[in-house]
Design brief:
- The chain is α/β, with parallel strands linked by helices.
- The chain is built from eleven helices and twelve strands.
- It has a seven-stranded parallel beta sheet with strand order 8-7-6-9-10-11-12. It has a five-stranded parallel beta sheet with strand order 2-1-3-4-5, with helices on one face.
- β3, α3 and β4 form a beta-alpha-beta unit.
- The two termini are 26 Å apart.
Length: 334
């Protein structure tokens, strides 16, 4: 068996993978471009550990059986030659950045609740700004709606629950509450024990009417594009604060801008957008009730190392013929 890694492994990362690979050949290349990835695939591979999957690499690897992605989403690779090669198994990096993105989400909520954007703008102006701080409403006792109860949503719920928040969860099949995906030890809500109430996709408005904070962690698929539209935004409370760490296209961005501009909802923390980079002429830049970041919520200093831990766990399962963690259902798109 031939394994190709395109990320450039440290000695420790290579040891982790080799311990799970048995007698398989491990080819390790740090590829900065699609051309370098295609070149690294000279002779093909059976297993690919990567972030991107160029068509040229697929054409050089007719024997390819399994792709382990480093990203939690698969929408960027399920096209081209790979879309035609249905026999190739794809698994994602879901769970790798769950803690980091959950921390980002809670940080955005806390920043909003404690008026940190107001004080930071005042700091830049050299103003001693104390107005409004006696009106702060703590997160304790507030309700968090989690739209997309996967690895990120579950870890966000765990932290929010520890802060004294009530949690409501929405997922594609709310009757399946257990998480079968991969997570580092102690992360998330594997048994689905935290939410007080569960909702299906057709109950989104019902959930939104009951929540003070909303986090959107949905992957981008044909079913989730525009999932939060005008009627869903209209169902939100006037004090609602929305954090989107999933994909920008999941929310109708123009409808969201209008609701924020007209103060029909309180605010939003956005790490993802319909078009990235966010256009310079977007109204979002000038809105005082928005916290913007450039799609960075999942970044942390040991991302590649944790990805290697997941890959090693899946590699052991692959060699043993066992079900893999984070298997992509192509019919669902994630």
């Amino acid at each position: 068996m031939r394994i190709l890694s395109t990320i450039g492994l440290t000695p420790e990362q290579r040891r982790i993978i080799e311990a799970a690979a048995g007698d398989a050949e491990l080819i390790d290349r740090r590829c900065r471009s699609q051309a370098e990835m295609v070149e690294a695939a000279e002779g093909g591979c059976d297993v690919l550990f990567t972030l991107r999957v160029p068509d040229g690499l697929m054409m050089r690897s007719p024997q390819l059986k399994w792709i382990q992605l480093m990203s939690a989403g698969a929408d960027h690779i399920l096209k081209g030659v790979l879309a035609e090669r249905e026999e190739v198994v794809v698994t994602t990096g879901s769970g790798v950045a769950a803690s980091t993105i959950a921390e980002y989400t809670i940080a955005s909520m806390l920043a909003w609740a404690h008026l940190l954007p107001v004080t930071m703008r005042a700091q830049l102006r050299g103003e001693w700004q104390r107005t409004g701080f006696m009106d702060i409403v703590p997160l304790r006792g507030r309700t968090l709606g989690v739209i997309g109860y996967g690895s990120i949503g579950r870890e966000t719920a765990r932290i929010a629950h520890g802060l004294g928040m009530e949690v409501l969860a929405l997922k594609r099949n709310p009757d399946q509450r257990r998480d079968s995906g991969w997570n580092p030890a102690g992360v998330g809500d594997p048994e689905g024990a935290i939410p007080q109430r569960w909702y299906g996709p057709d109950q989104c408005e019902q959930l939104l009417r009951q929540t003070d904070y909303i986090t959107v962690t949905l992957p981008l698929t044909a079913h989730t594009r525009g999932f939060i539209g005008r009627k869903e935004i209209a169902a939100m409370r006037p004090n609602a604060y929305v954090v989107n760490v999933g994909r920008g296209e999941v929310i109708d961005q123009q409808a969201l801008i209008e609701a924020l501009r007209e103060n029909r909802i309180a605010g939003a923390g956005l790490d993802v957008f319909e078009h990235e980079p966010l256009e310079l002429d977007s109204e979002l830049w000038a809105l005082d009730n928005v916290i913007l970041t450039p799609h960075v919520s999942g970044g942390f200093n040991n991302y590649n190392g944790v990805c290697c831990e997941l890959f090693a766990a899946n590699l052991q399962r692959f060699r043993a013929g066992q079900p893999l963690f984070n298997l992509v259902d192509r019919s669902q798109g994630y």
